[in-house]
Amino acid sequence: MADTAELKKDLWSKLAASPFVMVGLMDSPEHHIPLTAQLDEDQVDTLFFFIGKDNRLAPGGRAMAHFVSKGHDYFACFDGAARIDNDFAMIDKLWNNHVEAWFPGGKDDPNLALLRFDIESAELWETDISVSGKLKMLFGGKIKSGEEGSHAVVSTTAEG
């Protein structure tokens, strides 16, 4: 069973490998939507997303984001606040070819907005099921405590 520090480290490496999350505003009746997170190693507990100014998340507010790793062995739920932060230096830093495909006007596209999601708390799960646990699953046995994986509720995703 991994400790909380290991869970946090694994979160950022898995999110970098597959940066796709579902994001929604808590005060909105609209469904969450898939977005590609832009990660800035200099800013802990922050995700960035390039969106259109007409996107349903543009008004900002209390938000929640959900992440499932590429291998389906890591899950995270983030609670926090979303807001537009069109800092041109940050837009320039995070800009890449994938973003440019969505915004043909480039960094000066009139519909471009940078959504900043500040994580206030997170719940993390890693399914590092033991060998005996995997065998039990295969043959219909009962998984015991300690065989199921790791879980933590954290107020920061910072490593260490």
From TrEMBL:
Residues 9-138 form the General stress protein FMN-binding split barrel domain. It comes from the Bacteria. Coiled coil: none annotated. InterPro entries: Split_barrel_FMN-bd, Stress-Dev_Protein, YdaG_split_barrel_FMN-bd. This is General stress protein. It comes from Sphingomonas psychrotolerans. The lineage of its organism: Bacteria, Pseudomonadati, Pseudomonadota, Alphaproteobacteria, Sphingomonadales.
